[in-house]
Amino acid sequence: MATRSSSERYRLSFTSGVLFLQSAPLASKLFGELGDWAMVRDSIDASNLMQARTASSGRRQGRELVQRLQELSEVELDLLIDATADERAQLMWVATCRRYELIAEFAEEVLRERFLLMAPDISAEHFDAFVRGKMLWHPEVAELEESTLRKLRTTLFQMLQQAGLVTVDGIIVPTLLSARVREELEKRNPSDVRLFPTREAA
Question: What is the CA radius of gyration of the chain?
Fold first, then answer.
């Protein structure tokens, strides 16, 4: 992943605290069959793949899923189809980090750093301190309402838990990457291994 300029605005639209672990492999398989993301999105909407209560919610979630899957390489998309539960969570965490640089930076600068320093946990206070540090360079963060920041924080921690990186009590869970997932993550520069609490070289 290319290094981001501090002048670029963060995407801050991660309003759903899910990694789409059940629907992602199905959508990836659809892309393999259709070869077109717009057609995949139409198929998701038509079949209510997201199992949403309303059509508008289903469209919103389907669009979000496709945007994240588009961050994965073809090899990663193929891997997602027959991945283990752990591999699926790892790949969708990576897809989310690639889509949302704020999450990627939190993963590298806070989650991984605390793990390497042998700190056992991570909390809301760590997120708040992280965000305050970003406000100087990112006015779009400084302009957020407190309620929105709380929502983003809650969403992020929900995704950390779904990815198996943090327990519900905030304890950091060391990640064991499979050889095939690690191989794909290491193709990026810098390596996306940096997005996980692991002592493997990034």
Answer: 17
- As a whole number of angstroms, the distance between CA 170 and CA 175 comes to 15
Q: Which of 102, 79, 75 is nearest to 24 (CA)?
A: 79
Q: End-to-end distance of the chain based on CA atoms, in angstroms? A: 12
* Whole-number average pLDDT of the chain: 92
Task: Quote the CA–CA distance of 103 and 107 in Å, as a whole number.
Answer: 6
Which amino acid makes up residue 43?
S
> At residue 145, does pLDDT exceed 80?
yes
Q: What is the pLDDT of residues 158-197, one digit of tens each?
A: 999 999 999 999 999 999 999 999 999 999 999 999 999 9
Which pair of tokens denotes residue 175?
A: 């990640």
The verdict on whether omega for the bond into residue 190 sits within 30 degrees of 0, i.e. cis, is yes
pLDDT higher than threshold 60 for residue 4: no
Q: What is the pLDDT of residues 77-125, one digit of tens each?
A: 999 999 999 999 999 999 999 999 999 999 999 999 999 999 999 999 9
Domains of the chain: 100-202 (1.10.3540.10)
- Give Cα separations from 95 to 26, 88, 153 (angstroms): 16, 10, 18
User: Residue for token digits 């038509």?
Assistant: 46
Query: 15 to each of 130, 143, 149, how far by Cα in Å?
Result: 19, 17, 11
